[in-house]
Amino acid sequence: MVAMASASGSALCFTDASSSPAIRRDVGAFCLPPSTITFGYVDKPIINLQRLRLSSLKPRAANATAVEQGGSAADSDKVPTPVVIIDQDSDPEATVLEVTFGDRLGALLDTMNALKNLGLNVVKANVYLDSSGKHNKFAITKADSGRKVEDPELLEAIRLTVINNLLEFHPESSSQLAMGAAFGVLPPTEQVDVDIATHIKIEDDGADRSLLYIETADRPGLLVELVKMITDISVAVESGEFDTEGLLAKVKFHVSYRNKALIKPLQQVLANSLRYFLRRPSTDESSF
Predict the structure, then answer these.
(1) Global confidence as pTM
(2) Tell me: the pLDDT tens digits for 235-262?
(3) Under a CB-based contact definition with an 8 Å cutoff, are residues 271 and 202 in contact?
(4) CA 223, 54, 171, 96 torsion: positive or negative?
(5) Which residue ranges run through the membrane (predicted)?
(6) In a domain, 32, yes or no
(7) Could you tell me the sign of the dihedral formed by the alpha carbons of 86, 246, 158, 138, in that order?
(8) 27 in a structural domain
């Protein structure tokens, strides 16, 4: 199975080239909708999706470079949970990307090169170890401006690029990732019930903003969809963190309404809207 990323018009699409059109429509394709929404401010579109090309998702663990592959999959019978964190809060000047897959990751040079192909600079990189494994952290900025990434489309492209490389160099990770169902060599070993997995919480974070917590089943394009859903009801997304933990997505957004924290009725409207959207996902047929 070979999955390809392509751009048609202004939408970035992932398709399974070996599947029939009907299968691609149902499970084997995904398109990022066009968007100019940004975190914290309005700016011109940052990413030209017509130029964006992610590498194919064809696994090639047998000839993967040692620096990318790291530890061998044979080191442990239990496949660790892949974790990809996009952090907009901890560094005011850069977007922080953190990738963990037990102790199996190397220096991720191929991932850094893939990020450069998205028009990004890796301005700082470090590694630390703890009981959960080896954590690779990168501080990234836009190459054209030196600023942190604010465009949700580009943030989602970063997330999918990292997952792309995980599936390519560590095909065993596909059983632990939502994208593994369509693009990996092994589908997830368990299915996530969206109704059970979805949790939403909103609380005040001072007088000027609120904290929105979301936990739900992961799927490609989720970051863009969430930001669009929130801004469609006139709530601003200022910053936040988007974590991919195996089959789940865990999100923390700082949100506000007219530069103030959300009042209780608006919190309820936002929570109900998100809950309805996440539990009943739909895909525009015209995307395929």
Answers:
(1) 0.75
(2) 999 999 999 999 999 999 999 999 999 9
(3) yes
(4) negative
(5) none
(6) no
(7) positive
(8) no
